[in-house]
Amino acid sequence: MTDSNDMGTASPEASDRSPVRRSGFLDRLVMGVGIYYVTSLIVIVAATFAVDFVVLCRDHPSCMTRVDVPSALAAWDGEWYMRIATEGYSYDRDRISSVGFFPLYPGLGGLLVKCTGLRAELALLVISHGALAALFVLMIAYVRRRFSSADEELAWWTLLAMGLFPTTFYFRMAYTESTFMLLMLLALYGIECKWRPLWIAALIGLATASRSAGVAMIPVFALHLWTQYPDQRRSWLLRVSCYLPVCCSGVLLYMVYQWLVFGEPLAFVQTQENWCERVLTLRERVVGLATLEPIRAVYDPTSPCYWARVAPRSNLLFNMKAANPVYVLATVGLVAFGARKRWLSANELVLAIGLLAIPIWFKAGQTCMMSQARYASVVFPVYLVLGQILHRIKPPWAAMLMSLSAFLLVVYTALFVSWYRFF
């Protein structure tokens, strides 16, 4: 790479290879959609099997809404998105409310329901899978641009790493992950291609309408403006300030909506307090994160955060509450390893840090690490690192790792659609 904000280039092994012919858009489309189809088929088959053969967890009353595969794929947060898509938002300051979920994804689902008459869960799944298929195709283009001297197999391994990673089962559910990650990757691709800053800022604005963590793209955009216009650095702060409202347009418009409808522009923040499993002071939060208390509490039998307090209670390996800290630590380790090996650019590293730091700071301690593995699943630079690792190790080892990952993907899917607490 020759881009000034790239921390490094492809490996010496890759650079020594002779240039290879780059495939065209049609080849990328076939490859991306093909790997999307195969890896997603694993999830769909697992969900179909679970609906018929896995014992339904009845700890939550909403489990009774599972009547078929589409409704099973819309468990947990999917129920909230369905409600927003069909009924709109509601807010009660003292209770868990739907305003905690950002509007882009359920809004698209609701629009599709009105235009086609589809069931809400089917409409949401169409959005999720359409975004995921596009994400696979875009990831090929991004990898080939970032690692231009590497051979064609690198993109293939990167897609497999993403498609079979255990926690990416969320990408196939009625969840916002695939839409959110597509917008982030599209913005980064625009940065790599040096698109007009306004278009990149608009994509970031859409990302903030999908998830609050979309603001993690703002430092990346600011870094891009700094490196892209070295002769205008005196006016850098002014340029960032001008584009900032566009970058934040999604969350700002959502705040205006909440102010007009509920009289509370920060209702989405207020309602998060009702989702917390424990209340922590600022000091307790800082000290806890510094001492890794939220992680330790998950494995402490005396703590209210203990993993075995939720189903499945007897299986540490297949309990997502127990797995949340593991996936967060693995993500941190892979990001650090990728930075050390110079596989990640400055933009990718800044984005990864932001996507990890935001949910950890605002939620890890108060929610006992709940959903942290899901939040970590959208730290897409991790898949770049995994792709590099799989590309370099011996094929039997790569096959073994992918098989293990696919096995966990199947188990996680089956337990999620059976209403075990997989968040």
**If you compute it from the alpha carbons, what radius of gyration comes out, rounded to the nearest whole angstrom?**
21 Å
Share of helical residues: 55-70%
The number of helical elements comes to: 20
What general form does the structure show?
Answer: globular
Written as H for each helix and E for each strand, in order along the chain, the element string is HHHHHHHHHHHHHHHHHHHH
Number of strands: 0
Strand content: under 5%
Largest sheet data? none
By helix and strand content, what is the structural category?
A: mainly alpha
Mean pLDDT: 92
| Low-pLDDT runs | 1-21
* Structural domain count: 1
How far is it from the N-terminal to the C-terminal residue, by CA?
38 Å
Please provide a written account of the structure.
The protein has 423 residues and is an all-alpha fold. The protein contains 20 helices and no strands. The protein has one domain. Mean pLDDT is 92; it is low at 1-21.
Chain-wise SSE layout:
Layout: H1 12-16, H2 25-53, H3 69-72, H4 77-87, H5 104-116, H6 120-146, H7 153-164, H8 177-193, H9 197-210, H10 217-228, H11 236-247, H12 249-262, H13 267-270, H14 282-290, H15 293-298, H16 320-340, H17 346-364, H18 372-376, H19 381-392, H20 395-417
Brief digest:
Helix content is about 65%, strand content about 0%. The protein is mostly helical and about 425 residues long.
What are the main properties of this structure?
20 helices, 423 residues, mainly alpha, disordered N terminus
